[in-house]
Each structure stands twice: as structure tokens, then as C-alpha cells.
Structure prediction request, 310 residues.
Amino acid sequence: MALRGKHLLGIEDLSVQDIELILSTARSFKEISTRPIKKVPTLRGKSVINLFYEPSTRTRSSFELAAKRLSADAVNFNVSTSSVTKGESLIDTGRNLQAMNPDIIIIRHNIAGAPHLLARHCKGCCVINAGDGMHEHPTQALLDAMTILEHKGRLDGLKVVIIGDITHSRVARSNALLLKKMKSQLWVCGPPTLIPMEFEQYGARVCYDVQEAVSDADVIMILRTQRERQSEVFYPSTKEYSKRWGLNKQRMAWTKPDVIVMHPGPINRGVELDPDLADGEYSVILEQVSNGVAVRMAVLYLLLGASEES
Prediction:
């Protein structure tokens, strides 16, 4: 069985069955990354282009590894040394890349909706959204869900708390959409200036007090403050932010003993998250990174290989 759609542009487009299919496929692929020879011939002959207009460590590397572990050919498009620097538009860049007959283009862009625009103009290949502006980051939400399931065995009914810069976070939006579909109890917490009212439409409980938010939490997801997307001042100072909304050992006493702490990265240590917690017993941050490869292998397979096998 393959994904119903030709592209993966957002969690909003996925059904509960789609999400469950991706996660179950990812679980089956995870074992490949533990083998001495980390490669299977599933997508041999397929080609994947990473088109990243924004910096990335985890997402870009894991998409590249995912493609190579499925035996696809992966090409990293370097925007800084391309004709984009000469003024070439996204549509023209996409059309030129499509003329080379890739099977998938994976795009990260600073403008919301860029993957949707690319998908409309590149009809000969699949498009995957690897993060568009402040809109969505679907594969991050999927790998987060996989990590939660590995530790909790379910998503339904769990209290999941997202703390930090909610306004500028595509990770928060994709997670909110996924967790709502999977019937989790979502809470969001942070400075009032960094929590948009739209999250109440996702069924999230909005609060501004960290103790209230993390009390009896099953999962705590920490987000950094995205200064690169902020055009104005949203809180007094970094020190004040850390004091009021940063997660530290003292605040962990308010949570459940088996709570897990997550972060999509990169981490601003000592600001939103205490270094001891980032590396401590509650942290599953590196597990998120490992699961990112498995989830992206699953997405590539379901968009390409599975449809041919069915």
C-alpha cells in the first residue's frame, strides 16, 4: 500500500490511516540502520534531490541517508552556489530540476507554501516538504510521534506539552495537527507574545505558567526561540526567558516519573533547556534523530517503491 497522495506537503493532508501506515513502515525500516551493511535495494534506480534554501543539519542529512540506505541516488542542491544567487525563481529552479527527471524533490524554504507552489509546477515528480517558513514540518512531527510511541506505546490520551516559541515554529504546528488527529491532550506554554490564538483551534490548552503546563505531563517537547524569524522583541531578555520558561531539574519534580523530554534541535543549551536535562535520563533527543532516518525512509518508500510493488 502506498500513500494516497503524490506528495507529502503537510500533516494536514494526512489521514489517521496514512499516519499509522508511515509509522508502522518506519518501524520496519529502523532495523536496517543497525546492520553492518546499512543498505537495501528497495529504491535502486530512483533519484532524490535535496533542495534546501535554509540551513539544516538533521533533516538534510537524514533525508540523504534515508535515500542512500534504500539505494536511491541522492543529490544535494547547493543554493548558495546555484543560479538562485543570480535571481532565478523557485518555479524556474524547480522546472529545471524536473527536466533532469528526478523521482522526488525534497524542499526546505523560508517562505510558507513554497513546497505547494513547487508541487503545482513540477508535475513529473513527488515533492516532500522538509519545512516551509512558519507553516509545517511534517516529517519532524512523524518522527516525534514514532519516538513517543516507542516509549509510551500510544498517543491517545497522553498529555503532551510544547514549551517555547510557538508562534514561529513549524514543528509546533505539524505536531499540533498530528496530535489532534491521534487524540492526544496537547498543551502549549510560553510567553503570551509567542503563542498565537490559532492553537486553541487545534484543541490545545494554552497556558503561560510552566508548573501548570508540565504537571503530570507524559511528554515535554521543548522549542528554541527562533530569533532568525523574529522581527521584533517578544520577551525582555534571554536570561528572563530562561528563568520563566526554561526547563531545568527543579521543574522536572512537577512531572510524571516516566516523562520524556524532546527537542527538535538545534538546542540553545542553558536557555530553553538545562544541559543536564538535554543529556540526562529523561532525554530522547538523540532517539528522535535516529527515528528521523527511519521515518524518512518510510516516506520515500511509500511515495515511490510501495506503489510499484502493490
Notes: The first helix runs from residue 16 to 30. The two ends are 6 Å apart (CA to CA). Residues 192 and 234 are 9 Å apart (CA to CA).
